[in-house]
Amino acid sequence: MKTDSTSTLERLSLETLRGGHPVGTTGPRVAPGALTIGIVHFGIGAFHRAHQAVFTEDAAAASGDTRWGILGVTGRADSVVRQLQPQDCLYGVLQKGAEATSLRIVGTVRDVAWPARDSEKVVATLARATTHIATLTITEKGYLRAGDGIDLGLAVVQQDLALIERELLGECDLPASKSPIGLLVRGLARRFRGGAEPFTVLSCDNLVNNGALTRALVFSLVEALAPGAGRDELQAWLAASVSFPSSMVDRIAPATTAADRAEALGLLGLRDEALVVAEPFTQWVIEDDFAGPRPAWEEAGAILTTDVTPYERAKLRILNATHTQLAYLGALKGHATIAQAIADPALRAVARSTIDADILPTLDVPFGLNLEEYRDSVLERFTNPNLPHTTLQVGMDGSQKLPTRILGTAWDRLNAGHRPAGLALTVAAWITFVASTLQTDGPTLDDPLATRLQQAVASVDAAVTEPAALVDRFFALAEVFPPEVSASTEFRAAVVDQLGEVQRLVRTSA
Fold it and tell me: What gap in Å lies between CA 105 and CA 412, rounded to an integer?
């Protein structure tokens, strides 16, 4: 078996880091051994490690409050556990600007758990009096929602319901939880049984009103428990003692490549299997509604506010919507990265026009934010050539992203009497991209609804040969298109028209 020559090099750890830092590297800013766990984070992927974990370490360094070490909870695979545990949960953030690169070691993650093996560890940590906050970056599809609540028709949700009921009864040695929300509620149930200290659940996902959504999912799951055995008492405690603030997060953190690891190795002299990559820009806006103590995140640069909504809407509708549009148009045009797509004059013009005509008129101006300047900064951030965020990575899970990033804005503009051609173009580009995945040499469709989406296409030439029928089949997908949008003949006609515009743009040379 062929062995990577770097695998024999010393690996990042507390022991190997004791020798000091080479020039160009920094951190950890707080001694990892001084931190106690006060936060459980669900979804410890690259974004959390590049964003909230960094803010949390900076807050501890600024305030001297060392109660906020993090237990990171993985998703379905144990890959992050295998990356972090041998490194004493240390990892590097390779910050790549357009002109300079730096490496920072972060030590605020103090333990990591894989639910398939470590559900008990997660539940026990959530129940401890010294744990005060759970944060979430589980992506749109991780919430398993159906309408205003959790999807009770899913087998994993039903299995978690049974586990929560057994938890409330005080049973021991329970099997592994199956979903992030189910595992969270199981931990809350034990916390309620063990002392009922106040607690905060803070969603950091790109979802409208993510705090209220998370609360609704938790309460809908608890409401579905069998009567008795503490269900009503648990509900009352949740209502009185658990808060669900919203937040808005922003930092581009593309997938780490072998070249990134080689660059970090050259800077640090140690192998880092948990390395993450990020742009210099970072932002976190948090609703200041905590049931108990919290880190001094504002001392690390976070904005604490009574209303996250205007910031959230601006970010979702300007940055995320434009990212999505560039991902599909860029992929169709053969651009591998977002930086390549935004460098295409035709695509940059489309992005700018969509923001100005379809998005900015729907936004209230958040305090301290100039929307035109924010638009320009977003487009400029996309141009960073040292941040190869791929169009396929950004374009994954389109069925989950379009409702929050595109369709709500489209509905607002339709209600205002405006035909949102740019947003219709994005939907048309997504449909065309789905069709392209049916080609022999086409990309793989990475989406929870992949089979249904490809069935809706029917043929690779559908966008050209039967555009109206194709759009009708997609608009019939109730999981993607809200009833008011799917019923709009104006928007439907706009998407049909823009299928042809997609073909024209794809054929236009960069």
Answer: 44
Highest mean pLDDT among 53-62, 74-83, 498-507: 53-62
User: From the CB of residue 461, how many other CB atoms can be counted at a distance below 10 Å?
Assistant: 12
Handedness of CA 178, 181, 185, 188 (dihedral sign): positive
Structure tokens at 79: 């890959």
For residue 5, pLDDT over 80 is answered with no
Cross-strand bridge partners of residue 42: 73, 136
Domains of the chain: 5-305 (3.40.50.720), 309-507 (1.10.1040.10)
- What is the pLDDT, as a whole number, of residue 6? 56
| Residues contacting 365, CB < 8 A, separation 6+ | 310, 371
* CB atoms inside a 10 Å sphere around CB 335: 21
β-strands 91-96, 101-106 pairing: antiparallel
pLDDT tens across 167-214, in order? Answer: 999 999 999 999 999 999 999 999 999 999 999 999 999 998 999 999
Helices within 398-441 (DSSP H only): 398-402, 408-415, 421-436
Instruction: Calculate the CA 450 to chain-centre distance.
Output: 19
